Amino acid sequence: MLEVEKFEPPAEFRERARWSDPAIYDEAAADPEAWWLKQATELLDWDTVPTQSLDDSNPPFYKWFEDGRLNASANCLDRHVEAGNGERVAYHWRGEEGEERDITYADLHRDVQRFANALKDLGVEKGDVVGIYLPMIPEVVVAMLACARIGAVHNVVFGGFSAESVRERMEFSAAKALITVDGARRKGKTAPIKPAVDEHLGDLTSLQTIVVVRHTGIDCPMREGRDVFYDEAMAAAEPECPAEPMEAEHPLYILYTSGSTAKPKGILHTTGGYMTGVTATHRYVFDLRPEEDVYWCAADVGWVTGHSYIVYGPLANGATSVMWEGAPDYPHQGIAAAAGLGRRADQPQGLALVPQGDRGRALSDRRHLVADGDRRDHDHAAAGDHRDQAGLGDDAVPRGRGGGGRRERGQADRRGPGAAGPGAAVAVDAARSL
Predict the structure, then answer these.
(1) Is the torsion defined by CA of 279, 282, 285, 286 positive or negative?
(2) Exposure letters 29-43 (e unless 16+ CB within 10 A, then b)
(3) Does residue 335 form part of some domain?
(4) Are 161 and 302 in contact (CB under 8 A)?
(5) Axis crossing angle, helix 32-43 with helix 23-30, rounded to the nearest 10
(6) Which is more confident, 384 or 35?
(7) Could you tell me the residue range of the domain that residue 206 belongs to?
(8) For residue 234, which phi and psi values (nearest 5 degrees)?
């Protein structure tokens, strides 16, 4: 029989939590559709407020908030700037070689508007697919939100994948443009990305434009008439680009599975249900307090965890996050422990990278720790041995997923919190294989 461990949160944490009354589960179970409609209208800004929640008339193609209109980029940026929080730091970026940059909401708002106009200048329109093949640098967020601002569908490829994998995903999705980088850094080495992209994507007929971010400064080939440097496109673009209201069921992004067990499958995520889900789960699962917390999701933006809990969830909630370019054990294993974060979402393997002697110190100022992505086995639980030393009590919350979680997401229908709603399963709003 499967042994299930349960860790109750400390009483003090429970009392202060955003959700401290278990009756929330009864409320959601009593009328899941009404419960999620309430989350959608309370947590997001809508150009047209939805009056209907779930349309399950054509399973498995469930539709959420179909009569509503909103823009994901505006919910992540504009409303925070308009509320007077433009100078709040959106990301503390930490580079591979120790560089530090603080990017505010006003900075992102400015850059996203310019790049949205740059994309339009390059012929990108609503509904076009734009590939993004970038490392963990601020431009990856700018690119994603610029696409969302004008209704282009972004297709992010994990920066650790090969150029052959990029071609496969761009070809399947008929991408019109690709945003990439001159080179990518990893553990003291720089990989020439643009030449590899040219080699494998040079004859892809749908691809009309390649935008290149000058990140490492290495030389890279540029094809006249197709390639443009990111900074030059930005300089030529107009500064203001109003966010366009999108239908709730308008596609926000495509994300492909890794392909480790079969051919990669593209999952299409639509705007209204996805934004409701990730905004709610990020706010409540992480017990977020954006005015005081510094939050770190140690995943990569190339995975759905990164889309949801590095970009859309944190920004929709006005959070201050850390973006980490490099490996969490470079230039030494203790580097991640020195980041000084108040909140951390991680995969269990990430905890194993913290040296045993540093784990108590690494966790001592963490108010809430969520391990997501894999089963919490005894090896991964080693960091949990330091809960008492760190003063966390039992507030180290494993949210093991493994293969079972993937099956749960496949069965997602219309339940409330604790089960699968438009957020607990991020593909529930539109899980359509392309």
Answers:
(1) negative
(2) eeebbebbbbbbbeb
(3) no
(4) yes
(5) 110
(6) 35
(7) 31-327+401-410
(8) -65, -45
In a domain, 139, yes or no: yes
CATH code for position 297? 3.40.50.12780
Q: Give the residue carrying structure tokens 């770190």.
A: 296
Beta bridge partners of 69: 48, 247
Q: What tokens were used for 351?
A: 């905890």
Measured torsion, CA atoms of residues 136, 142, 145, 146, in degrees rounded to the nearest 10: -140
Contact 417, 277 (CB under 8 A): no
Segment 53-65 mean pLDDT: 95
Burial grade of 89 (CB within 10 A; 0-12, 13-18, 19 or more): middle
Exposure of 335 in the CB half-sphere (CA atoms within 13 A): 17
Number of folded domains in the chain?
1
Give a yes or no: residue 210 inside a domain.
Answer: yes
* 111-141 per-position pLDDT tens digit: 999 999 999 999 999 999 999 999 999 999 9
Separation CA 54–CA 75 (nearest Å): 21
CA distance 170 to 100: 32
Question: Which are the contacts of 72, defined by CB distance < 8 A and separation ≥ 6?
Answer: 145, 148, 246, 252, 271, 275, 312, 316
Angle at 380 between CA 136 and CA 137, to 5 degrees: 5
Establish if 57 belongs to a structural domain. yes
Residue bearing tokens 């720790």: 369
DSSP 372-433: ESS---TTGGGGGGGHHHHT-TT-EEEE--HHHHHHHHHT--S--TTS-STTTSTTTT---B
Q: How much is the pTM?
A: 0.85
